[in-house]
Prior knowledge:
six-stranded mixed sheet; globular; alpha+beta; Deoxyribonuclease I, Chain A; single chain; 353 residues
Amino acid sequence: MVRVGTWNVENLFLPGGEAGPKTEDAYQQKLDALAATITDLAPDVLAVQEVGEPQALDDLAARVGGGWHVELADPDGRGIRVGYLSRQPLTDVEQIAAFPEGLRPIQVDDTDVELSAMGRPALQARVDIDGRPVYLITCHVKSKLLTYPDGRFSPRDEGERARYAVFALNRRAAEAATVREAATGLLDGQGQQRAVIVLGDLNDEAAAATTQILYGPPGSEIGTGGFDPPDQGDGQRLWNLAPLIPEEQRFTRIYRGQRQLIDHILVSHIIVRVVPKMTSPPVTPPSHRSATTRTTGATNPGPTTAQSSSTSGSEPPPVPGCRGWSQVWSSVPAAGAFSFTDRIPFSAPPLDV
Length: 353
């Protein structure tokens, strides 16, 4: 049995820096709040996004206690990165960054600069549960927030706004294709036997074109007539577990008054067939927002939870400066902004490595 989750911990930096808490006391309060929620949920493997200095994640692991294996990817230009905290040893850890073969470098601004790799590398890892491998990829795809030359957040004119919206969209699409290429390699056409999870902050909703790039062959979506019958795409497909969350609870942030689910759990065939249901507790706004949410006009909701009928249904308090979390229960790990799979018997057939 294993429990796997993902959480955008929003600017987990050491105190005193531009993006981190301004005081040591504020930093300690954030660590306490994060640790309390992690302790309550008791993950075996937790994927995290927006980690600043490695020491900050080490501090969080120490605050939770009990012993953790820690892995981190390289940071982006802002100094944030993705990673894992794991009670189980992580193996086959590999950073994913370069765009796949056949995808040309993309334009990112009005200069001749081109990009041929993810701005924030994704991180792949393997955890073995009762001798069976579970493969994970955590990522934090480029946000929809537009930035302009000289650090501006406002365009000079509508033409500039439209161009930079295209640049950002192309970058998110290329990053999604890069993660999908890695997932395709892990699945190897055997999703009915291989437990693969792509989890993290996709910075867009389930129906977005960039998110759908990650799904693989279309069809067989949860809740449709094509879900139950097997088809030739099952071995390559990833399923978004978002439809299992009740519609009124299906969000991990509030942006300009609109509820949005931008943190997702995508799982292979062997996992999706054993996920029972997902639920969420009521929303309680946090006591403050991070620098990122002040800029974008987004507020962070309380937890989004997916669980089986066997769970306690506990509702951890919202964590200031972090987004909500979602949780899913299955016989193998799944994932979301806090996405979560809970412990349950590993009843799936043996995995063919």
